[in-house]
C-alpha cells in the first residue's frame, strides 16, 4: 500500500513538472519585473518577484492535480461506505424476517443513509409524494399518539390538583409493559399557589415567561408542545434551530424572540398546528389541556382509519347474477 502511495506521488510530481515546464515556455510571463537586453533580471527585488511567481505557478498546478485525485478518492470511499451500509441493512432485514420481528431493526439506519449529505436529491413525482405520505403515517404510529394522550391525561390530573409539573420532557415520561405513558420526576412540581417564581426546568422545554418569574400552569402546555415535536419526529436529536445556539443564554434569548423547532417533512398538518399552538409565546393563546386531548383523539382516530381502511365486501359475480335474476 505504501509503495502504491509513493508511486502515485511520484507520478503526480512528474506530471506537474511537465505541465509547469510547458506552461512556463508557452504562456507564462513574469509580471512587474525589469529585464536588460540579454533577458537578465536587473535587480535583486526583481529576482524575488520572479521566484515568487514561479512558486505560485508550481503550487497552483500541484494543488489542482492533488485536489482532483483527492476528490476521486473521496468519491470512491463514499460509494464504498454507502455500499457497506446498504449491505448491513439488507443483512439486518433478513435477520428481522428470520426472527419474525414486527419492527425492522434497520429502519433507523435506512433513514441515516437517506439523510447523508451526498445522497442524491429526490425527484418530486407521484412516487415521492406517496412515499412521503407513507412516512407521515408511519411516524404517526398509534403507539406514539397514545403516549402523547397519556401524557396530557397525566398533566390534566396534576393541574386538577392545583399542581404544576414544570419539567415535562421525554426523560420524565416512562412506559409500562403495555407501552402506556407515566409522568415521573416531580422534583420541580409545586402547587400553583405556592410557586415563588423560581426559574426551573430543562432549557429547551422552558416557556418564555418562565424567565420573568411570573407564570402559571400553561408552562406545562408549552413543554408538551416541545415534547410532542419529539414524539412526532421519532428521534431525540435537538431541533436544528436549537442546535445552532452556542449556550443556554443564546437559546433563551432566541426563545424569547420566538425561536421554535422547525417543521419536519414527516409532520402531519394537524400535529404541526397543535405543536405551534401549544408553544405559543402568549400563555393565554395556548390551548387548554382538555382541548389538546380531544384533538389528539381525533388525530388518532383519523390515523387508524387511514392506516387501516375498511375493506369493501365484493359479492361474487355469479351470486349477484342469481340474486338479480332469481336464478336457482
TrEMBL record:
<dbReference type="GO" id="GO:0005524">
    <property type="term" value="F:ATP binding"/>
</dbReference>
<dbReference type="GO" id="GO:0043066">
    <property type="term" value="P:negative regulation of apoptotic process"/>
</dbReference>
<keyword id="KW-0808">Transferase</keyword>
<protein>
    <recommendedName>
        <fullName>Dual serine/threonine and tyrosine protein kinase</fullName>
        <ecNumber>2.7.12.1</ecNumber>
    </recommendedName>
</protein>
<feature type="region of interest" description="Disordered">
    <location>
        <begin position="307"/>
        <end position="328"/>
    </location>
</feature>
<dbReference type="GO" id="GO:0045743">
    <property type="term" value="P:positive regulation of fibroblast growth factor receptor signaling pathway"/>
</dbReference>
<dbReference type="InterPro" id="IPR051302">
    <property type="entry name" value="Dual_SerThr-Tyr_Kinase"/>
</dbReference>
<dbReference type="GO" id="GO:0005737">
    <property type="term" value="C:cytoplasm"/>
</dbReference>
<dbReference type="InterPro" id="IPR001245">
    <property type="entry name" value="Ser-Thr/Tyr_kinase_cat_dom"/>
</dbReference>
<dbReference type="GO" id="GO:0044344">
    <property type="term" value="P:cellular response to fibroblast growth factor stimulus"/>
</dbReference>
<keyword id="KW-0418">Kinase</keyword>
<dbReference type="Pfam" id="PF07714">
    <property type="entry name" value="PK_Tyr_Ser-Thr"/>
</dbReference>
<feature type="domain" description="Protein kinase">
    <location>
        <begin position="1"/>
        <end position="303"/>
    </location>
</feature>
<dbReference type="GO" id="GO:0070374">
    <property type="term" value="P:positive regulation of ERK1 and ERK2 cascade"/>
</dbReference>
<dbReference type="GO" id="GO:0004712">
    <property type="term" value="F:protein serine/threonine/tyrosine kinase activity"/>
</dbReference>
<dbReference type="GO" id="GO:0004713">
    <property type="term" value="F:protein tyrosine kinase activity"/>
</dbReference>
<keyword id="KW-0723">Serine/threonine-protein kinase</keyword>
<dbReference type="GO" id="GO:0004674">
    <property type="term" value="F:protein serine/threonine kinase activity"/>
</dbReference>
<dbReference type="InterPro" id="IPR000719">
    <property type="entry name" value="Prot_kinase_dom"/>
</dbReference>
<dbReference type="InterPro" id="IPR011009">
    <property type="entry name" value="Kinase-like_dom_sf"/>
</dbReference>
<dbReference type="InterPro" id="IPR008271">
    <property type="entry name" value="Ser/Thr_kinase_AS"/>
</dbReference>
<keyword id="KW-0829">Tyrosine-protein kinase</keyword>
<keyword id="KW-0963">Cytoplasm</keyword>
Amino acid at each position: 500500500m505504501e509503495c502504491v502511495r509513493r508511486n502515485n506521488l511520484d507520478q503526480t510530481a512528474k506530471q506537474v513538472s511537465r505541465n509547469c515546464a510547458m506552461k512556463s515556455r508557452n504562456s507564462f510571463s513574469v509580471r512587474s519585473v525589469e529585464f536588460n537586453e540579454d533577458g537578465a533580471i536587473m535587480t535583486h527585488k526583481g529576482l524575488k518577484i520572479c521566484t515568487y511567481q514561479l512558486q505560485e505557478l508550481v503550487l497552483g498546478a500541484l494543488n489542482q492535480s492533488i485536489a482532483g485525485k483527492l476528490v476521486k478518492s473521496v468519491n470512491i470511499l463514499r460509494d464504498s461506505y454507502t455500499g457497506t451500509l446498504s449491505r448491513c441493512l439488507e443483512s439486518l432485514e433478513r435477520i428481522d424476517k428470520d426472527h419474525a420481528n414486527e419492527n425492522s431493526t434497520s429502519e433507523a439506519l435506512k433513514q441515516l443513509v437517506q439523510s447523508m449529505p451526498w445522497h442524491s436529491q429526490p425527484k418530486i413525482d407521484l412516487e415521492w409524494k406517496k412515499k412521503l405520505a407513507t412516512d407521515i403515517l408511519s411516524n404517526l404510529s398509534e403507539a406514539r399518539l397514545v403516549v402523547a394522550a397519556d401524557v396530557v391525561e397525566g398533566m390534566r390530573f396534576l393541574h386538577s390538583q392545583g399542581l404544576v409539573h414544570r419539567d415535562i420532557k421525554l426523560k420524565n415520561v416512562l412506559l409500562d409493559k403495555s407501552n402506556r405513558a407515566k409522568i415521573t420526576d416531580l422534583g420541580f412540581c409545586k402547587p400553583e399557589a405556592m410557586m415563588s417564581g423560581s426559574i426551573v426546568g430543562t432549557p429547551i422545554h422552558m416557556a418564555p415567561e418562565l424567565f420573568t418569574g411570573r407564570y402559571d400552569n400553561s408552562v406545562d402546555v408549552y413543554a408538551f408542545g416541545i415534547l410532542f415535536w419529539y414524539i412526532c419526529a421519532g428521534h431525540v436529536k435537538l431541533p436544528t434551530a436549537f442546535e445552532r445556539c452556542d449556550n443556554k443564554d443564546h437559546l433563551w434569548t432566541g426563545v424569547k424572540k420566538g425561536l421554535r423547532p422547525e417543521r419536519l417533512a414527516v409532520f402531519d398538518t394537524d400535529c404541526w398546528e397543535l405543536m405551534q399552538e401549544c408553544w405559543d409565546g402568549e400563555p393565554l393563546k395556548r390551548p387548554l389541556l382538555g382541548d389538546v386531548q380531544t384533538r389528539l383523539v381525533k388525530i388518532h382516530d383519523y390515523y387508524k382509519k387511514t392506516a387501516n381502511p375498511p375493506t369493501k365486501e365484493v359479492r361474487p359475480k355469479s351470486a349477484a347474477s342469481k340474486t338479480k335474476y332469481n336464478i336457482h
